[in-house]
Amino acid sequence: MKKLKKILIVIILTLIYIYVCNISMLPNNIILMQGEVLKLNTVLGVNIKNAKTITASSNLNNSIFEETGKMNLELNLFNLFPVKDVTVNIIPKTTVIPLGRAIGMKMYTKGVLVVGMSEIEGQKPYENSGIETGDKIVEINNQKINNTDELIACVNSSNGEKIEITYVSDNEEEVTSILPVKTGENEYKLGLWVRDAAAGVGTLTFYEPSTGEFGALGHGINDVDTYELIDIANGELVTTNIVDIVKGEDGTPGEIRGIIDGESTIGSIYKNTSYGVYGKVIDTSRLNLYTSNELEVANRNEIKTGKAQIMCELENGKIEKYEIEIQKIFLENNKDNKSMLIKVTDEDLIEKTGGIIQGMSGAPIIQNGKFIGAITHVLVNDSKTGYAVFADLMIKQMREVN
């Protein structure tokens, strides 16, 4: 009997723990677009109420918010106990000019990124330092490190004496020390392979005339060695030239091959996120913008399964529209950029590319005269099928940047 009681107590405590964890995992801050439905997966007994006008009967979950601005909500247990505060920022509807233009991007990291390690003269100076691949070195001997040249200069100026290194690992700043090793060329090295920049070609998704800002890709740029999202200090949006289209097929994704000429800077990049790359347009003359192409950004609840169009550039200076089909919509997905399952149906595009190919990420999607999202992924085993991100998620990310 005593054993049964202990088991019941353990079960009850476990359920209480799970219950509390589910409440604590609910977000503290939410961004909604004007006219969007609030969707919070609350647990049994938890109601969402306006902190200023709480009534016993009000529950704002599944409500549509039309007024813009910030609202403080209270999560209330059984209408008796407040358990969590949530701030909701309702941003106004906006219009953008969908672009679909191939573009080059240069990004510069905060500090220098450690991408590998190797022995120096048979020694491993980095051993036991705590520094690992994917960490960022930001200071040496209290001197800021902005690029690889500065790191090399600091290490060589040590004359073989132990140096103090400040680095960032898992978003935590750490301090360690390393004794550099002298090479046969009379240089001092740490045995760390580092990088301070990344570059690539993608698709510019939209330009927002009211702010002069842009969104691109629909997903972030990850480092080729660490596979982690690059934490950038700044970057440039530059012109590019398409040199080849590699047609994709099931099992082998194709790609748009381009060269970054770097001669003309179109804009500055200020953030690299899981939902796209964002920045400010500096030279609008390079984008051939027409206000007649301006479209309203759709809320996700306006999107329908069925026909839609994408815009993309497969030949230099030639942006065209192609037919696709939206097969599934994941309305409540806010955790990644796989918001919609799409399929290319346009025979002309299939002939040119085989479907969705690398470099097409960011191609804007239009449905019923509204901008609804952008391509983000292709399914490796089905080159005609892939995923797209909601337009509202891209706009929300852009607002968070400000």
Provide a short characterization of the protein structure.
With 402 residues, this protein is mainly beta.
How would you sum up this structure, described in words?
- The longest helix has 23 residues.
- The strands form four sheets. This protein has a 17-stranded mixed beta sheet that branches.
- It is mainly beta and 402 residues long.
- The chain contains four helices and 25 strands.
- It has three domains: 68 residues, Immunoglobulin-like; 217 residues, Thrombin, subunit H (Beta Barrel); 72 residues, Roll (Pdz3 Domain).
- The protein starts with a helix and ends with a helix.
- About 1% of the residues have low confidence.
* Count of individual helical segments: 4
Please, how many domains? 3
Low-confidence segments: 53-57
What is the C-level CATH assignment of the largest domain? Mainly Beta
Structural class: mainly beta
**Fraction of residues in helix:** 10-25%
Mean of all residue-level pLDDT scores: 82
Cα-based radius of gyration, to the nearest Å = 25 Å
Q: What is the CATH third-level topology name of the largest domain?
A: Thrombin, subunit H
Strand-residue proportion: over 45%
Main beta sheet strand tally, sense and closure: 17 strands, mixed
CATH homologous superfamily caption of the largest domain: Trypsin-like serine proteases
* End-to-end C-alpha gap: 61 Å
Report the order of strands and helices: HEEEEEEEEEHEEEEEEEEEEEEEHEEEH
The appropriate CATH architecture of the largest domain is Beta Barrel
The number of strands is: 25
Q: Based on CA inertia axes, which overall geometry fits? A: globular
